[in-house]
Amino acid sequence: MKKILLALVLLVVVALAFAYIQLDKIVKTGIETAGPETLHVGVNVGSVSISPLTGNVSVTDFSIGQPKGFGEGSLMQVSGFKMKLEPKSLMSNHVIIDTIEVDAPLFDVRHLDGKTNFQALQDGMTLPEMGGAAAAEEEITLTIRSLSVKAPRILAKTDGMIKLDEDLNLADFTLTDIGTDEKGVAPSEVARHIMNTLQPQITKALIAAGASQKIKDLAGDAKGKLEKGLGGLLNKLKEKNTEN
């Protein structure tokens, strides 16, 4: 009996060790699988590094492709992403994050045939059905104590009577104490905080570039377009992990 128990313990240890070693690859594959299923565009990740014990997460070369009809390249890409969270909070729907550092995010805003790529991305999303009290209990909420964004850039391009093709370098910024109450906030609310900070910078840069009012409105078009998608994608990833 002791030999059987010892063999079972060894099997469990080996299985856990294998899962730990393969965790980065599993998460990378999950992002590149669930992302396109939800967004209907390509989602790529260079590398993922996760330490479940310390709560440290690192992602490099993350990108979301352009919707159909908007050409090649990425709608959004991030050179590097680092996060430190409270590991025990992953056991609940309220995830507590100490720090997030985003390095060199690039948003490529395109306006073609009266529609932006952000609108097209949102229109094409396949989001999980959410509704009722039970669904509300399953939604993920976040607390972020510090979120820093370094070297953000916006590419603004439009066709039509007024053409624009600008590469705008924006200022670094840091947001603190997001969702620090007991319940936290939805991912869409985090996106709103970020876009509220970026939008005045984008508008100012477009004015400096001599853009018309119509074109300046493109700066605000991204605001809110990914809010619904961020929450839906996180919940879809969670559902996928539950199924597995």
Describe this structure in words.
The chain is α+β, with helices and mostly antiparallel strands and 244 residues long. The chain has one domain (2-243). Helices cover 41% and strands 32% of the residues. The chain has six helices and ten strands, in the order αββββββααββββααα. It has helices spanning 2-39, 117-124, 132-138, 187-208, 213-221, 227-243; strands spanning 43-44, 47-51, 56-65, 74-85, 94-112, 115-116, 141-150, 153-158, 164-169, 173-178. Strands 1, 2, 3, 4, 5, 6, 7, 8, 9 and 10 form a ten-stranded mixed sheet that branches. A hairpin with an 8-residue loop joins β4 and β5. It is globular and about 50 Å long. Residues 1-20 and 132-137 have low confidence and may be disordered.
What's the quick description here?
The protein has 244 residues and is of the alpha+beta class. Helix content is 41%, strand content 32%. The chain contains six helices and ten strands.
Which key phrases capture this entry?
alpha+beta, 244 residues, 10 strands, 10-stranded mixed beta sheet, 6 helices
